[in-house]
UniProtKB/TrEMBL annotation, chain C:
Gene: gerAC
Residue ranges occupied by any Spore germination protein N-terminal domain in the UniProt entry: 23-192
GO CC annotation: membrane
InterPro entries registered for this protein in UniProt: GerAC_N (IPR057336), Spore_GerAC-like (IPR008844), Spore_GerAC-like_C (IPR046953), Spore_GerAC_C_sf (IPR038501)
Domain Spore germination GerAC-like C-terminal: 202-359
Full protein name: Germination protein GerYC
Keywords carried by this UniProt record: Germination, Lipoprotein, Membrane, Palmitate, Signal
Cross-referenced Pfam families: Spore_GerAC, Spore_GerAC_N
Transmembrane segments: none
Organism annotation: Robertmurraya siralis
Length: 362, 493, 362
């Protein structure tokens, strides 16, 4: 069941940093502060740290599993559950990654519709965007990694732009610390999952890394960096908004941009939102790549066929969502599935793999 | 059944029959005065130097001790004397400026005497890649002279020159140059193989080779660097790159190359690293400016009025007040005008071209503003953008940049800034997919290689240039000993 | 051939896409720079709101002409709709600089409903200024101030006073911030029309539940700013026996400290670094400086206390003592802060004035 990937199609271990980081840092970042504050109030930043620690453990488990089977999620499934059941389980991942693509794209389109172009047609934008995604996918994994790299490096100036809000911030908003119960904080951690899921793509692209052992360090660094970014945003947001006002803003990150004025640009959010297109592009690319790659492994189609077909499905899915309720339903669904998949299923799979390994040794 | 000799003779006669149709074909019979051997000379008068025939060949053949064809070597003081039994050789040699000597006695043996006529210009000053500082010589059309220029700069035995002939009719000589102990074998093989695989009737210029052997022929980006500077070629060869010299073309190709190399002028290496880094950054800025500024203008004025600083509003709105067109048409109109001026200027003789530039710039620009066809703000923007696109040191990439502006412009019209970012994404994907001779085109930006940044967006001092570029995968990655370069004496020592 | 088909299909899609987003071409829209709200004067329209918009007509080589349009309606959005009936081009809110409320309207009806659309509208920036007009907003807007348009004049007036003089930081975000912050109440600057070409910044209005309950004079603004802005500057005159001095506070810092819990006592440390701008006495000796410092400190202490007393009287807390208490005391209950607890709060002041320089002459 294992496959051989030609050496020149693999990527350097340190690029894992960009893949994982870009997958985590996507559309969720624009609105997660409100969600964590809903449950844990302004102690939400603790939840961010807790989530970060949780993901570190999960990543460690994933690396361990992948090392045992030396393959991807499909090989793990067939290693643990046998061929038939393994295939069925892997097929769920195709659906999950497609849903992830649809969710990212539809949420982004909603933001554009609300903030920039109320008359933007979902279908047409999704068509062009997915065409770009397919074009990137045809370039292979290296190209996608390239996009991931640029989507981290090029928009990084935005991080500095957030500092413009500091004159209007009051950092004592977060005092006193630990006003909420542990349970509240953990609930907030759980609800943050939509923001930070995406690292599970490692289960698919693991065989594409040169010397995967070396990439471990970079994977963990990526998660550390994501946690740091989320923490940075959380602190700035909490300082900028009083709690009551934060609850009113669906996308607090975007609302914060409204205060930014530079001598040559009066308002920043339009540039920022347009820029976010580059940030979510690799999210869609990698998700679709993962889905099509699993499909290739399961049904032995060529990726050249699976990518356009899955993109078409995503296009249909995206244009079928009209109202905010529907979009919210989808993002709730994805974040729930994502949460149980990463924080529930992966540890389970990890234990099963360890057991299967012991049994097979005997 | 014909004997092979008869067959040969027949071929020979057929050849002569065809050749006789051309007026410059000469076939003259002679007789040696001493030995009374009958012999004849065949040559194309347009290809040979008649002076050589009259001074270095005929006197010796007529008066020398000439019995057999082999004797020629002894009696004729020429370097290039070859023998062959193959009548097919005759055609090849004739058109390469050889004189064919036939001896009545030995019908199936031919002797070729080199008497090339050298027609060509002398080495001049680089015109496309002119530099104020540094060498002023540039390549010419003749491959021999060009090879000489390069050899002179790399006088070592490791410099290998491999020649092949490409083109069914043009029979163009193409040479691959590389340092055997430096260049990556894979790169050399790729070049060699791609050249061998070329099937085309004519290779008029090295540009043909670029287009035919490029990794992605549908890309507007040039994937091989072309230069007319011998210094640049030799320095690239020493870096471990492969050069391709094409006969009849004053432009030499260098590969593998990367995108950033198209923005580095060779003069950068002649200036202090601080200054040249500054110039390079300016160039990158100019390119980004040139691509983005018109689309940004269109996007802002059509969709994002919120972004305009309030002090600028007055100037912008007032200048657009009387204009009947939407911003996109206004921008397209001016962009096309600039392109027209450039096209017209490029086709005209220098003196007339200058006049056209001035007339076009001043008269058309001012008139269209006064007529209310365009706003003066946009006129400034477009003129600057056009100016910025000419800052690229390599001519080819300048054309690419001018072309790139248009998709950006159309996307900006479609979705404002979102469209610009989207087209930027497409550009990024395209560039990440591109390769030059199988090596990543965007290197060192992607794949990110810290070491190669020493000579990319900026150029660090020679002290830091201890390694050859990583993407070339050179056999000798070390350029100078890093240890020695970094050695530092204490103060007052 | 294939590439020709691709090109044609791309062209077709492009043509389909054009016009799918609504354009707002700069010279074909009216950019509202300012909106003013008044009470309706006509008896038949009692309870209706008169909305006035101010937009510039730009002209080449000349300052923009101020143009106003007025309409009456029940709520703000319909005001804009009513005004739209009078205008030749679409009216857009994206480059609005200031919103004005007549004092009468703000005292009787409240401003909350009128502000709500501005925080909802993605086109409106958070840096928007809000101000109360002592008099009628429409009348103020119809004047002719400065050469760069009325709205720019108003906003520059406010901006300059924030940057260099006594006005505390204020804008839409600041207003909403203190409105939504528990244990804090918002305020707005107050403008007054003096003549057709002159406007005066004549105080600060304080709001409770969206209605003006209290106003302070420009003389008190200096002290109010010391209390409310973490960093501030401004000019104040101090009189001593030897003469009178104008002291410019270059930089002042305040710090709150909870010094006692039962009864609740807050100490406010105010550090002022000042220079002498003007002195009517004969010579500035160290002794004079010393007495100036003492006098200044005394005045800060007295005036600030007076201000806080007046806030207590009006049951408002623009300085945010309530919020401060919440950050200091765990699970602090703020529900009836301004009505009861604030009344019993003891505020101590520790002013510390340092006068560093006395200009270029001795």
């Amino acid at each position: 069941m294992s496959m051989s990937i030609p050496e020149n199609k693999k990527v350097s271990p340190f690029l894992v940093f960009f893949i994982i980081n870009t997958m985590q840092f996507g559309i969720g970042v624009l609105g997660f502060q409100r969600i964590i504050a809903k449950y844990a109030g302004y102690d939400g930043w603790i939840s961010v740290i807790i989530t970060g620690i949780g993901i570190h453990i999960l990543l460690w488990m994933m690396y361990k599993m992948l090392k045992i089977v030396d393959g991807d999620i499909v090989s793990i499934h067939s290693f643990v559950f046998g061929k038939t059941i393994g295939k069925i389980l892997s097929a769920f991942f195709i659906i999950y990654f497609c849903l992830l693509t649809v969710m990212v794209l539809r949420t982004y389109i909603e933001i554009v519709q609300v903030w920039m172009f109320p008359t933007l047609e979902t279908f047409w934008f999704a068509l062009v965007f997915l065409a770009v995604v397919v074009y990137a996918n045809f370039g292979g994994f290296r190209t996608i990694t390239g996009i991931a790299f640029f989507s981290i490096v090029l928009p990084s100036y935005i991080l500095a732009i957030f500092l413009f809000t500091i004159p209007y911030s009051e950092f004592d908003n977060m005092l006193p610390i630990f006003e909420h119960s542990i349970k509240d904080i953990l609930t907030a951690s759980k609800n943050m999952s939509l923001t930070v899921i995406g690292f599970e793509t490692l289960l698919v692209f693991y065989p594409f890394i040169k010397e995967p052992e070396k990439s471990k360090k970079w994977g963990h660094l990526a998660i550390l960096y994501t946690t740091f970014l989320c923490l940075y945003l959380t602190v700035l947001t909490f300082a900028y908004f009083p709690e009551k006002q934060l609850q009113l803003n669906i996308w607090p990150t975007l609302t914060m941009w409204k205060i930014i004025a530079m001598p040559f640009v009066e308002r920043f959010e339009y540039i920022g939102i347009a820029n976010w297109c580059l940030v979510i592009l690799p999210n869609a690319c990698i998700s679709l790549w993962c889905a099509s790659h699993i499909a290739k492994r399961l049904f032995s189609f060529t990726v050249r066929k699976t990518v356009p077909i899955l993109a078409l499905l995503c296009l249909i899915g995206t244009s079928l969502l009209f109202t905010r309720t529907q979009i919210n339903f989808l993002s709730d669904l994805v974040s729930n599935v994502g949460f149980y998949l990463t924080f529930g299923y992966i540890p389970l799979l990890f234990i099963s793999t360890l057991i299967a390994k012991k049994v097979k040794k005997k | 059944m014909k004997s092979p000799l008869l067959k040969k003779n027949q071929k020979m006669q057929e050849l002569v029959k065809i050749l006789k149709k051309s007026n410059d074909f000469k076939h003259v019979q002679y007789m040696n005065e001493q030995t009374e051997e009958h012999f004849s000379l065949m040559f194309m008068s347009t290809m040979v130097e008649e002076k050589i025939i009259h001074e270095s060949i005929l006197p010796f053949l007529l008066e020398g001790n000439f019995h057999r064809l082999e004797d020629v070597k002894k009696i004729v003081p020429l370097e290039e004397i070859e023998f062959s039994e193959d009548p097919l050789e005759i055609e090849k040699k004739l058109f390469n400026g050889f004189v064919v000597l036939l001896l009545e006695k030995e019908k199936n043996n031919y002797c070729f005497l080199g008497a090339h006529k050298e027609v060509g210009r002398t080495i001049g000053v680089p015109e496309v890649e002119f530099s104020v500082i540094g060498p002023k010589e540039s390549f010419v059309e003749s491959i021999e002279q060009n090879l000489n220029l390069v050899r002179k700069r790399i006088p070592v035995k490791d410099l290998i020159i491999e020649e092949q002939t490409i083109g069914k009719y043009s029979k163009t000589k193409v040479a691959i140059l590389y340092l055997e102990n430096m260049a990556n074998t894979e790169n050399v093989n790729t070049v060699r193989q791609r050249l061998q695989e070329i099937e085309f009737d004519q290779i008029t210029d090295s540009s043909y080779i670029i287009q035919i052997i490029s990794d992605n022929q549908n890309s507007p980006f040039p994937q091989l660097l072309d230069t007319e500077r011998p210094d640049r070629v030799s320095s690239s060869i020493i870096e471990g790159k492969v050069a391709i010299i094409v006969d009849g073309s004053p432009h030499v190709l260098i590969g593998p190359t990367t995108l950033v190399e198209f923005f580095s002028s060779f003069e950068d290496y002649f200036l202090n690293w601080l200054i040249s880094s500054f110039f390079r950054l300016i160039r990158f800025f100019a390119v980004m400016f040139s691509i983005l500024v018109t689309p940004v203008y269109v996007a802002t004025l059509s969709y994002h009025y919120e972004l305009i600083p309030r002090d600028l509003l007055n100037a912008l709105v007032a200048s657009r007040m009387a204009i009947p067109f939407p911003p996109i048409l206004e921008a397209l109109f001016l962009e096309l005008t600039i392109e027209l001026l450039r096209e017209a200027g490029a086709r005209l003789p220098t003196k007339v071209g200058q006049t056209i530039g001035i007339v076009g710039g001043i008269v058309i620009g001012t008139a269209s503003v006064e007529a209310g066809l365009t706003s003066n703000v946009l006129l400034i923007i477009i003129a600057l953008a056009a100016l910025a696109s000419f800052t690229t040191p390599v001519y080819r990439i300048g054309n690419t940049i001018r072309l790139l502006r248009f998709p950006f412009l159309f996307f900006a019209e479609l979705w404002g800034f979102l469209g610009i970012v989207l087209s930027f994404c497409i550009l990024l994907i395209h560039l990440s997919r591109l390769t030059s001779l199988g090596r990543p085109y965007l290197e060192p930006l992607y794949p990110p290689r810290r070491v190669d940044f020493k000579d990319a967006l900026i150029r660090l001092s020679f002290k830091h240039q201890t390694k050859r570029p990583l993407f070339l995968n050179s056999k000798k990655p070390e350029r100078i000993s890093a240890k020695k370069a970094k050695e530092k004496k204490d103060i007052d020592e | 051939m294939k590439s020709i088909y691709t090109a044609i299909s791309i062209l077709c899609i492009y043509l389909l896409l054009t016009g799918c987003v609504k354009k707002e071409i700069l010279d074909e829209i009216y950019l509202i720079e300012s909106i003013g709200f008044d009470h309706s004067k006509e008896k038949s329209n009692k309870g209706m709101i008169v909305g006035t918009i101010l937009y510039p007509i730009y002209q080449p080589d000349q300052p923009p002409k101020n143009k106003t349009l007025t309409a009456e309606a029940h709520i703000k959005k319909s005001v804009l709709q009513e005004i739209q009936l009078q205008s030749a081009n679409p009216i857009v809110t994206g480059s609005m600089e200031i919103v004005l409320f007549s004092k009468e309207l703000a005292t009787n009806e409240g401003v909350l409903e009128l502000i709500d659309p501005f925080q909802r509208d993605p086109a409106v920036g958070s840096g928007l200024y809000l101000a109360v007009v002592d008099g009628e907003a429409k009348e103020l807007m119809e004047g002719n101030y400065g050469i760069r348009g009325n709205a720019t004049y108003f906003s520059n007036l406010i901006e300059n006073n924030i940057k260099n003089e006594d006005l505390p930081k204020t804008n839409l975000h600041k207003f909403l911030f203190s409105y939504y912050q528990k244990g804090q109440t918002p305020f707005m600057p107050q403008l007054k029309r003096i003549s057709k070409e002159k406007v005066l910044l004549n105080g600060i209005c304080f709001f409770k539940h969206g209605k003006i309950v209290h106003t302070i004079s420009p003389q008190e603004m200096f002290f109010f700013r010391l209390l409310v802005d973490k960093y501030s500057n401004g000019l104040h005159r101090v009189k001593i026996d030897e003469g009178e001095a104008a002291i410019r506070s270059i930089r002042s810092v305040h710090r709150f400290k909870l010094t006692n819990r039962f009864p609740k006592e807050v100490t406010v440390q105010i550090k002022v670094h000042g220079i002498i701008n003007e002195y009517t006495g004969t010579k500035v000796t160290p002794k004079v400086i010393d007495s100036l410092q003492k006098e200044f400190e005394k005045e800060i202490d007295e005036e600030c206390k007076k201000l806080i007393e007046s806030f207590k009287e009006n049951k408002i807390d623009p300085i945010g003592f309530g919020h401060f208490m919440k950050t200091q005391i765990r699970n602090f209950d703020l529900t009836d802060w301004t009505d009861s607890q604030f009344q019993n709060l003891i505020v101590k002041l520790e002013p510390d004035v340092t006068i560093a320089e006395a200009g270029v002459i001795e």
